[in-house]
Records
---
Amino acid sequence: MLPHEMLQTQTQVERSLLSRVMGWLALSLALTTGGIYLWIAGVVPQNIPWLLYFIVAIGLIFGIQAATNSKNQSLAVGLFGLFSVIEGLFIAPIVAYYLHAAPDAVGSALLGTVGIFLVAAAVVYLTSI
């Protein structure tokens, strides 16, 4: 294999990895948004203390690590999805407060976050050629 072909292969590997990372990030953000929606819509009781969500999230981090170490990929993926929803429930009271107090601030934060994410992804993509 020529050095140029090895470089091409490395670039393809990096882009494939970036693609997978972006996919997992998009999935986690969608599930977190779902958790926020469940809390705001009242599907999940709003009287559960935020500290409980925090403790569950920390436990899930250790659970994901243990599932990964034991090579149980399906369990790790399931725990990751659950972690994303729990994180949404954890931050839901803050988002609800800002939606009530200053709805424009939430929209601006969303656009700013998406903008920064897209610029960072473009920089990584363009510099890995």
---
Amino acid sequence: MPDPELSASGEFGFIDWVRRQPAADARVLVGPGDDTAVVAWPAGADCLVTTDMLLEGSCFLLAEAGPRRVGRKAMAVNLSDIAAMAGRPHFAVVSVGLPRRGGRALAEELYRGLRECAEAFGVAVIGGDTNSWDGPLTISVTLLGSPTGRGPVLRRGARPGDWIMATGDFGGSILGKHLDFMPRVQEALTLHGLVELHAMIDVSDGLAQDLYHLCRESGCGAVLRAESIPIAAAAHASSDNQSPLDHALGDGEDFELLFAVTPEDGRRLLAEQPLGSVRLSHLGEFVDRGVWLESAGQRQELPPRGYVHRLE
């Protein structure tokens, strides 16, 4: 049920409710309720900006996930983008298109999920926009962050001879991980402080698809070794006609980090395993051209399988 204090109807009643939630943050000079937020930005820092939109029926099933988990995911996918740049997240603005019926209760639970995730990573939610319509739930988060003193890690710096490395495991995210994953923000910062990361991406579209993104931006190719890919238990549990390897390569929404380092730094990371319970793996190497999957010593071309939003 909605908060009993929500007596005013419509958008402004919800904004008043948001403003009454505890939100002490010295960096926020003016928060929700004015025409714009006013924040204190880190001196001399560049600004990382990312945005993601989630659509009911495409990115989540509201009846199965519940609004709180959807709100969490909306924040987490943006945090994962900041992690891919080895940045620090700071502020978020949130826009939601709510269904007219039941929208107030839905908005409250969305906000709680968003805010819980944001606070866990030191992010202040500083404003946004609320609307209602006759369609399904739509939620968009824009997140602002800053790079470290070493600068952002881009997709375009991988070189032939670099190792392909990754955090965590892959496949089967539809069984729950796509909603409950942990953004690798601290892991990225730790890696960035230890070694030179030549290129990095978060695996949202699929391992094969996102490897293609790295190769295209870097102007090189890659060889991925099938036996070296850490496959999630959920990929083995999927009861369809795809193999666990197929799930690992193409399911997407694993939100792990895929990155390029020198062989020397790669060997160091494998030996030290500096991320605690989040294991690092060596998946293959970047090469001059082509994207290949190697299995039992045999290479075959790896297509860019994964999720693509279709525009017709």
